[in-house]
Structures are given as C-alpha cells and as structure tokens.
C-alpha cells in the first residue's frame, strides 16, 4: 500500500518548492542584470576612467576653469595695478608666491602672475562660446543637409564649401576689422562665423548614415514628425563624433583668439587675456623673456589639455580604437 503523507509534510514540501522557485527567479534576474549590455555612454565612461590622457587633461582643465571662474582664489593683486617706479620689468621673485612677484612684472609695472591668472577668463570664455556657437549652428546645418538630401543638401553643401575656402584666421581678421571696439563677444562672433563648417560636415555624414537605420524607418512609419525624428531619434546617435571634433577644436579657437590679439585685431585693453599680454610682450622678449613666456606657457597648456581630452574622448567613443 502507498505510504500516506501527512498534511504538515505536504505543506512543507509546497513551501520548499515556492522558496526554491523564488530563489531561482532572483538568481535569474541577477544574472540577466549582470549580462545586460552596456550603453555607448557607459562603455565610453569605462574607457575614459582607465585613460591617463583623460585624467591628465581633466586635472589641467579643472585648474584653468577654476582659475577663470574664481581668479581671486589664486591672487588678490589687481592685474591692472601699475607701478613703473618700483616694478618696471622686474624679474621673477620665487620667494613671494602669492604676492604678485612670483612671475615678475611687465613693462607697465603690472604683475605678470596676476595678469596670467585673470587672463584665463577671457581666453577660455572665447573658446567655449565659439565652440558652443559653431556646434549648434554647424550641427543644425549638417542635420538638415543630411536628412533632407536633394536640393537642400546641395544648397547647404555649396554654402559650406564657400566658407571652407576662407581660412579661420584670415576670415576672423577681416571681419573684426569692421569693429572699432573689440570685446569677448565680437571676437566670438568673428571666429564662429568662419568656424562651423567642419562640424556641419561631420554631422551631415553621421545623419546620412543614421537616417537609413531601422529605428528611424519605424518611427517614420508610426507617424513621427520630422522634428521628433531628428531630435529624439537621430541626434542622440550622432553626437559622439560631433563632441570629439568640438572638444579638439576648442583648443584651436583659444589659440586663434590669442593669435588675433597678438596681431592687434582681437581683444584690446582694458580686457586682460593671454593674447593681449603676448602681443604687448613681443617687444620686451630680449630684455624680459618672462613677460612673454609665462602667458604663452599657460596658453599652450590649455590648448594641449583640450586636445588631449578630445583624443581621449575619441578613443573612448570609437570601438575600432579600443
């Protein structure tokens, strides 16, 4: 005869089975969560964290950005305060770190250290503002040309080619000649007018590739409008190469602003910038090289930091380079 099972034993068996099923389900969920594919942004951040280029450029940029935003944290000396009698072309004095003597004085008796610290603001603002302007405008032109194609692409591409024929430095120099008083915003306008074409080309090529994707076709079949397809579906998938180009170009815009100021066409006094100081120091290089070398070194480090950051971001976003 079959052995009878008590009700308590049956309930224990059912409870054990339920607990086992719950544990199996929880383990399955954890395994699926661990095996869940990472997004492009997560993969890029994982690569960036292990890149010495990213950390080296990031530390430099943090220092320069804090210097531009809060110069009084680094010095309390007025960069426009002049003392020709006591400080004319005085050499660096390494024993006074925060008293304005560390980098010496220029031909106006002004602290080179204070002017270098305060000069970071104008130079970085110009670079960042020009980068934002060319990314927005050039990105929009490239999106429209790549998505619509046909005569729209032909017209916008020919306009882009015309502007490509004008060098950035020459175009900015010519346009800024029309302004009698040149400020940060006029220099930004001059550089942005002739600096958007590369972003437009990169965006156009990326949009042409993405608009043939299945998710764009599905969105169009579901009745999504042009604006929704462009900004909700295509734009997030084409930002990678645009960010890389914009980051690398930012350093170039800073150096171009300094070049224009050096030629006397960029920023002017009383604006304090590295380019203005380099321009003023060119006649004093033989007698007081520190007046030129200090702002030039800070300018070079800033440009180098942005270029290194762009290289690190490019390596992180391009799977072929991993």
From TrEMBL:
Location of the ABC transmembrane type-1 domain: 120-310
Location, primary (coarse class): membrane
Localization terms from the record: Cell membrane
Entry keyword Aminoacyl-tRNA synthetase: no
GO biological process: transmembrane transport
Gene Ontology CC terms: plasma membrane
Membrane topology term: Multi-pass membrane protein
Transmembrane intervals: 52-74, 124-150, 162-179, 234-254, 292-313
Any Pfam family hit: BPD_transp_1
The organism's place on the tree of life at top rank: Bacteria
InterPro entries named in the record: BP-dependent_transpt_permease (IPR050366), MetI-like (IPR000515), MetI-like_sf (IPR035906), OppC_N (IPR025966)
This protein's UniProt keywords: Cell membrane, Membrane, Transmembrane, Transmembrane helix, Transport
Protein name: ABC transporter permease
């Amino acid at each position: 005869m079959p052995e009878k099972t008590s009700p308590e034993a049956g309930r224990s068996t059912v409870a054990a089975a339920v607990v086992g099923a719950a544990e199996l389900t929880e383990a399955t969920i954890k395994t699926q969560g661990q095996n869940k594919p990472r997004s492009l942004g997560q993969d890029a951040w994982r690569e960036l964290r292990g890149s010495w280029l990213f950390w080296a450029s990031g530390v430099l940029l943090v220092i320069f950005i804090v210097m531009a935003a809060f110069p009084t944290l680094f010095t309390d000396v007025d960069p426009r305060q002049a003392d020709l009698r006591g400080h004319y072309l005085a050499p660096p004095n390494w024993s006074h770190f925060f008293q304005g003597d560390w980098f010496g004085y220029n031909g106006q008796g002004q602290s080179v250290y204070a002017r270098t610290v305060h000069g970071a603001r104008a130079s970085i603002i110009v670079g960042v503002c020009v980068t934002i302007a060319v990314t927005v405008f050039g990105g929009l032109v490239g999106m429209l040309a790549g998505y619509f194609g046909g005569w729209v692409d032909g017209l916008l591409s020919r306009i882009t080619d015309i502007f490509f024929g004008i060098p950035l430095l020459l175009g900015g120099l010519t346009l800024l000649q029309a302004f009698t008083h040149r400020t940060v915003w006029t220099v930004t306008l001059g550089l942005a007018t002739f600096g958007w074409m590369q972003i437009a080309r990169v965006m156009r090529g990326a949009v042409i590739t993405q608009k043939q994707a299945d998710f764009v076709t599905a969105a169009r079949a579901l009745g999504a409008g042009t604006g929704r397809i462009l900004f909700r579906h295509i734009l997030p998938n084409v930002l990678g190469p645009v960010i890389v180009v914009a980051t690398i170009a930012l350093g170039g815009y800073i150096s171009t602003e300094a070049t224009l100021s050096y030629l006397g066409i960029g920023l002017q006094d009383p604006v304090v910038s590295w380019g203005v100081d380099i321009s003023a120091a060119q006649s004093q290089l033989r007698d007081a090289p520190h007046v030129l070398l200090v702002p030039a070194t800070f300018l070079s480090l800033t440009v180098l930091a942005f270029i290194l950051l762009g290289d690190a971001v490019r390596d992180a976003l391009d799977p072929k380079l991993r």
